[in-house]
Amino acid sequence: MIKKLRIRITAVIMAGLTLLIAAVVIGIYIFMQRSETEETDKAVDSALSAVTREEMEKRGDDKKPEPPEDDDPSKRNPSANNRQPAKRQASRNWISVLLSSDGTVKEIAYSSSYNKPDNEDEIGEAAESIAAQNSENGYIRLSDVSYRYFIKKSGGRTRVIFIDRTNQTETMGRLLIVLIFVGIGALVILFPISVLVSGWIVRPISRAWSSQKEFFANASHELKTPLTVISANIDVITSEPDKTVAEEEKWFEYIRSETGKMSKLINQMLYLSKDDREETKLLMSEFNVSEAIEGVCLATEALAFEKGHNLVTEIGSDISCTGDKEMIERLANILIDNAIRHSVGGEEVKVKLHRRKNRNILAVTNKGEYIPPEELSRLFDRFYRTDKSRTSSTGGFGLGLSIAKAIADKHKGTLTAASSPDGLTTFTFTWRD
Question: Cα 222 to chain center, whole Å?
């Protein structure tokens, strides 16, 4: 499932990146297209200005006498020689076709830098056809040359202007190809990155999924043992139907004991489930934590005596804190019970509570088996027990420390474990007021 989820996330990321890159490519292309269109419009204005100036000069020259052959116009007016080419200059090559009132070609003019094409008749016919359609502008291709045309009417005359856009079309085509290849290259580079990102996204999901599977497997294992015992005892009872309840009391006691274990396990699982859903609310109040911990120690002293251990306490007097009294008492009970169950025979269990600056510190120490560092970090995992066979004679289901850690987190505190080679193990709960 996790693998399929990662594939889907990668696909979504790549789809999003593809759409983004496509939008950028299209945006750049549209921007360049508009720039080309604006440049063409300027070329039309330039062509009209050049043609108009030439017509005005022709009309003026017709009225003036021709200068003597040895008369150099540039000497009489030095600026005239420089101004003439400027009048014919345009940023784009153009062709201007002037049509008479009957729609026939009257004159064809070219920009100064434009070589006269061989298909002048074709251009004239195209101009006549365009004028007959009454379209203001458009695109046309003549002899493998791409033009954009415009129609200008004034004084009963029609002028069709062709702007050569072959170079611009080729440039735009090359630009589009470059953008496409850049986009494909970007996707190729971003693909492994998206795979890494998808792995980072699904990592907590994978951990949660693994934890959930492990939780169900461990819960099934823990429930299987008492259910098996209960089933076996019921078989024994039903195999001798003539016996009284008093005679079968031993088997009923076994059933009651296993039922109690199941009830405890289910309650612990329900607490952790509520904590996961953040349904566990703390009843915050100020209370004397010294008295609370002393009460827990008195309640567990009998268990310590039964197991052959001496419970030693060093509790600071009148230490107050703000928190959920019942939850902190439960945390202390879990730590002390855990220390008693995992202590070797005859060793003392030490409970210490003191205050350092604005922090309260509860430490529970016992002497038992050495716990290596790689296992210390897993002590607070659900159903985790240091005995791999999960048949520890100490009892418990491996949920107590998980509940204690959840309570510590609720109080915004820390719960840590440390173990020394000589077998001393200390659990320390530190929290602020």
Answer: 38
Within a domain: residue 274?
no
Closest CA to 145 of 173, 114, 166, 171: 166
Query: How many Å apart are CA 136 and CA 164, to the nearest integer?
Result: 17
* b/e sequence 131-155, b meaning 16+ C-beta within 10 Å: beeeeeeeeeeeeebbbbbbbbeee
In the chain, pLDDT over 70 holds for what percent of residues? 84
Q: Is residue 410 part of a domain?
A: yes
Q: What is the pTM of this model?
A: 0.53
194: left (phi over 0), alpha (psi -120 to 50) or beta: alpha
pLDDT in tens, 169-189: 888 888 889 999 999 999 999
Mean pLDDT over 330-339 rounds to 91
CATH code where residue 409 lies? 3.30.565.10
Radius of gyration of the chain (CA): 47
The angle, 0 to 180 degrees and rounded to 10, between the axes of the packed helices 249-276 and 400-410 is 30
Q: Is residue 84 one of the residues assigned to a domain?
A: no
Residue 116 host element (H or E): none
94 inside domain: no
Number of domains in the chain: 1
pLDDT tens, residue by residue, 154-169: 767 788 888 888 788 8
Structural domain boundaries, residue 377: 285-432
Query: 352-387: buried (b, 16+ CB within 10 Å) or exposed (e) per residue?
Result: bbebeeeebbbbbbbbbeebeeeeeeebbbbbbbbe
| Mean pLDDT of all residues in 189-198 | 90
The string of DSSP letters for 152-176 reads EEETTEEEEEEEE-HHHHHHHHHHH
CB atoms within 10 A of CB 214: 14
